[in-house]
Amino acid sequence: MDFQQAIAVSPTTPSCDFEVSVAITCIISWLIPRSYFTLEKQLMMGISVFPGNREAILLATVVGAISAMCVMSILYVLSAVTISSVTKNLDRRADAIVTGMGRTVSAVLFLFVSIEIPLWLEVFNDVPRNSHYHKRRVTRSTLELRHRVCWSVLNHFFAVYFILLLYFCNASILTIIRSTIVGLICGMLIVISMHLGRKISRKRFKQRQKIAVAGSVLVSTGSALAFTYGTLYVADIWLKGSADSVGAYGLVAFFAWLGICFLVNFFYYWSMQLQKSIQEKEAKNDNEHSIFIINGILASDGFSITSDEELSDEEDATSETVELALKLLKRSRSLMTATTTNMDSISTETSPTEKEDDYDTNFSLAATIESMEENSYTWRRWRTADNSKIDQLVPTEPPPSSSVEKMESCLKWTFWTAISAFHLYLLIINIGATIQQNVVRAALPGTFEFLYAPGFVSGPVCAWDKANSDATIQTFDSIEDAHHANFTVIHCGACGACSNWNDLSLQWTTRSFLAEEAQNCIKKSLFSGTEEDIQACNQNDIGFSEECASCWTQDELCAKKNCVFIYLQSFIFNQVSNFNVELGDITTAACDEALCGPVFVPCSGATRRRMNIISDIPRTQDQQCNVAEGNWSEIFNHP
Prior knowledge:
Elements: H1 3-7, H2 22-49, H3 54-86, H4 92-120, H5 142-164, H6 173-200, H7 205-239, H8 243-285, E1 291-294, E2 297-299, H9 319-331, E3 338-340, E4 345-347, H10 365-370, E5 377-383, E6 389-395, H11 403-451, E7 461-464, E8 473-476, H12 479-484, E9 488-492, H13 501-509, H14 514-523, H15 531-542, H16 546-572, H17 588-604, H18 632-635
Parallel strand pairs: 3-5
Antiparallel strand pairs: 1-2, 1-6, 3-4, 5-6, 7-8, 7-9
Helix pairs in contact: 2-3, 2-4, 2-5, 2-6, 3-5, 4-7, 5-11, 7-8, 11-16, 11-17, 14-15, 14-16, 15-16, 16-17
Keywords: Membrane, Transmembrane, Transmembrane helix
Transmembrane segments: 20-37, 57-84, 104-124, 145-167, 173-192, 213-235, 247-270, 413-433
Organism: Nitzschia inconspicua
């Protein structure tokens, strides 16, 4: 199916992607592995704090995860049902834009996955940043661990929740269910693939590197395809170009995004290697004041670290190792507040020991943590040339945030805030516009019947006795009555506030841009301004007489009240200047006609369609007053 066919669906056609929403599927697929690996970290952290209570820690982790899943499920279902219901008749062009945006968002998520594959496969570990050192209470109970697990999972969900909402628009419940199931399956496949990749190549770092590179390249290519397909939807709506130009645009979009993917991955890898190099230098400088544990055995100082490979999560310091190190620290009156592992950081607030050599060899880790005072220690993990596992406990202070970290954090939150706010804006606009369009569809047939009844050309007419500024203008019950009085018909319907020489002239001379000029008057008071501002715009900028300008002002205020979301939505698919009035695609002009026309037309009297003027608002022939007798080009001396 080409893009023209894809967007030519009726307004009531279910949302984009038909059977499965790509956006929903990809967001769920991204959420599953992120949440899973977060749970894995929280579980390992809990075990390291409470090594003798693994069953309780596992239970707390499971309960926390289930609690988070319940909250997410309730929000997900309520949001999906509500939004899909209120946007059931979403404008087909807005629907196509949402489709394109969904695929573009999927491309961004694919890009994030391509970056995280090496982390998940433990090709390189995420470097500790200043934010990892911030003080927080250590998990002192299973209840607190449960809460932390619950929130850590919800944190990932809320990161994409406000983005996800937009893609429920006009989606059938069946489509949402299918998309969710497919997303869950894909997410679990990612988790399984990462575990298999780590298991197969556990002791083969080079092989693991190759798998990570291949996976990143494959996912980056999929990201480029998703980005291309998404931007083509948007380009077809916005640019309305030929098939050749759209195809060329797609080719450029594909290679441009693929290049961005490779650059981002390269930059991330480079930053990891740079930070790792800095840490190695710091580790060598700290050797004299460090505690080393090789393969779980406390070692003396004086050996060198010769390999550049860090240990994986499963090769982390054991709880016994940590306890042994802490005992040594306690004996030497060392003070500790934080032990940062490869999974997460554990912050503690402690008080110093009072006795230098008097300590209980069977003290618990939790008791030790509570008995020590503020200082900072960090585990550094390395592997020597003979493949020995080294855990180095070095005293460190929370490093100051570098300018790069500050900029990265600022860009991250700015990007997330901007994307989420933009999605929420589009969601609100689409909901509001759909509700207003449904009202217009219900009202428009009645308005047409009122304003353009089958015999409206044979009813009352407005006529003048001569075609100049001194003419006498009055209403007659019929065309025949006007002719009997030697008057010439100006327009169908009774005369109104705009049935005078000045305003009749404006109807003709501004016929190709009057609707746009009137729209500009509304813009001036869309979010600020007063009725007086609109009146001044109509009277001074356009040139209507005071009474006629008042009719236009009331009409524009009516449109502002009833059609503002339709107007804002028109910016989404580049249709601000579309003034079609029909039941198919509901425009701002159609909304104004349906809801404000029954008051405006009798007030103004003279309108372009009543004067049989072909204007910038296309009209069907049965809505034109073909009995109007004026040759406007000659009368107003304006071609």
